[in-house]
């Protein structure tokens, strides 16, 4: 058997962008694209085909890049593995993190230029993306904070609205960053943070790992790199950031302060409501001598894939602990890379798919629908999954429905009942969701060929080039009557 050849991972943002450009996957946009809507519109039109590079957007000196992780195959390529091994490689890195390596401040390119008392809006080319967004948003900023109780870091990507020269509102969902903030708030302290803009592709991907609290995602980035990630201590706090990043915003999430944030076009392709959110006070901005600003167009492929692939790897590992017959999973793009999960199962017992469905719902509260299919169905092909549902599923026998469970607070359908009166549901009613599971598997045993998938012998192996006559033509003109 031929061993699959791996290639070295792309551990540097500029090296990755140069590689994409050399292979025709970067579109160089003309100077002057407006930061309000126009930049996002251009990047969205190129989504999944080419990354978009914007020199002097809105007349600013700092260029903007978007879309450099907008295809699943590109992400596998950045990792140096075949697409078929993408989840396994990420899962291995998450299971074997490498402690980062701190470098002296003077050696970190992310601190070559220092701006004290900066004006974020004047200094950085922060775009306004969607039609009803309440101003410019940082969408590709990795927020790094330390647990006030343990000192261990967490990395996440949060939407951040820039609404003043040195103040920004942030959405923190009830996950690790929010837990750190609540602990700091309990102690009567602000939470020091760093916002990293322009990280290498693998560190960006690692930031989305579903890891337990007090597991630093920068260590998963090191495992993906194959070596400890170089980090540097911030100038105004103890947070460590990737030393090779483009731009760092240092600041504090203020204790007890809330300001209006939103609406904002989120990944479900709807707007989230305007609400009072936590506030970041900006202290310092550092960057490379000639930095590149990264923006993610919300709800497009770069946004969806960066979130879905790490989740898939975690979900696959979680399911396989109890069900070794599970061989693959896929969070569908139609389900916004979060809500709809397809599971491939080598079924050995009747009823087993329903157990898999229940296990998947317990694995992550965002999951709203699970379809379990047999191992002859490709879960990355929505047409094959739909075929399995059409021919192997009966609603009165194979449907699982769970009411009143916790779901995603960003799914607008979950908050309809609670928000009918004033437009915003109270926090304890947000995200209440029904869950639906579909067992689209055939019976373990069945009569003759009732559930045998039709195939033609040789259809996968026949050499078409050997049979198609190069340059051959056929004359379909009727022959003259004798």
Automatic annotation (TrEMBL):
UniProt xrefs under InterPro entries: UbiD (IPR002830), UbiD-like_C (IPR049381), UbiD-like_N (IPR049383), UbiD_Rift_dom (IPR048304)
Pfam families recorded: UbiD, UbiD_C, UbiD_N
Keyword Lyase among UniProt keywords: yes
A GO MF term: 4-hydroxy-3-polyprenylbenzoate decarboxylase activity
GO biological process: ubiquinone biosynthetic process
Domain 3-octaprenyl-4-hydroxybenzoate carboxy-lyase-like N-terminal: 17-90
Entry keyword set: Lyase
PANTHER family (alphabetical): 3-OCTAPRENYL-4-HYDROXYBENZOATE CARBOXY-LYASE-RELATED (PTHR30108), FERULIC ACID DECARBOXYLASE 1 (PTHR30108:SF17)
Official protein name in the record: 3-octaprenyl-4-hydroxybenzoate carboxy-lyase
Organism of derivation: Bordetella flabilis
């Amino acid at each position: 058997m031929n061993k699959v050849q791996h290639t070295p991972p792309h551990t540097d943002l500029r090296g990755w962008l140069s590689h994409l450009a050399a292979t025709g996957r970067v579109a160089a946009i003309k100077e002057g694209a407006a930061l309000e809507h126009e930049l996002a519109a251009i990047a969205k039109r190129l989504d999944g085909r080419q990354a978009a590079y914007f020199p002097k957007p809105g007349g600013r000196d700092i260029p903007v890049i978007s879309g450099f992780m907008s295809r699943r195959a590109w992400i596998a390529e950045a990792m140096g593995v075949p697409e078929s091994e993408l989840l396994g490689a990420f899962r291995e890195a998450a299971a074997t993190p490498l402690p980062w390596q701190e470098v002296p401040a003077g050696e970190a390119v992310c601190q070559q230029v220092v701006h004290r008392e900066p004006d974020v809006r004047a200094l950085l080319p922060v775009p306004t993306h969607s039609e009803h967004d309440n101003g410019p948003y940082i969408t590709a900023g990795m927020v790094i904070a330390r647990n006030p109780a343990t000192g261990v870091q967490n990395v996440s990507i949060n939407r951040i609205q820039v609404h003043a020269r040195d103040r920004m509102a942030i959405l923190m969902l009830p996950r690790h960053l929010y837990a750190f903030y609540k602990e700091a708030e309990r102690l009567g302290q602000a939470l020091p943070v760093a916002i990293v803009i322009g990280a290498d592709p693998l560190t960006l991907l690692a930031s989305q790992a579903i890891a337990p609290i007090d597991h630093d995602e920068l260590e998963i980035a090191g495992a993906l790199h194959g070596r400890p990630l170089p980090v540097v201590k911030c100038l105004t706090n103890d947070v460590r950031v990737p030393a090779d990043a483009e731009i760092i915003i240092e600041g504090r999430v203020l204790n007890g302060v809330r300001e209006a944030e939103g609406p904002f076009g989120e990944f479900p392709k709807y707007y989230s409501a305007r609400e009072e959110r936590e506030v970041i006070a900006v202290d310092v901005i550092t960057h490379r001598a000639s930095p590149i600003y990264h923006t993610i167009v919300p709800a497009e492929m770069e946004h969806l894939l960066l979130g879905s692939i790490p989740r898939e790897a975690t979900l696959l590992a979680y399911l396989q602990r109890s069900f070794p017959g599970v061989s693959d999973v896929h969070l569908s793009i139609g389900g916004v890379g979060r809500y709809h999960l397809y599971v491939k199962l080598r079924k050995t017992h009747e009823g087993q798919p329903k157990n898999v469905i229940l296990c998947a719902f317990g694995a992550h509260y965002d999951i709203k629908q699970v379809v379990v299919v047999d191992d002859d169905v490709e879960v990355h092909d929505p047409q094959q999954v739909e075929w399995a549902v059409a021919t192997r599923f009966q609603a009165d026998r194979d449907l699982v429905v769970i009411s009143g469970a916790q779901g995603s607070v960003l799914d607008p359908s979950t908050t309809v009942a609670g928000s009918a009166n004033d437009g915003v549901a109270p926090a304890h009613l947000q995200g209440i969701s029904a869950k639906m599971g579909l067992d689209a598997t055939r019976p373990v045993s069945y009569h003759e060929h009732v559930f045998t998938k039709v195939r033609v012998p040789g259809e996968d192996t026949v050499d078409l080039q050997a049979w198609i006559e190069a340059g051959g033509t056929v004359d379909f003109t009727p022959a003259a009557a004798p």
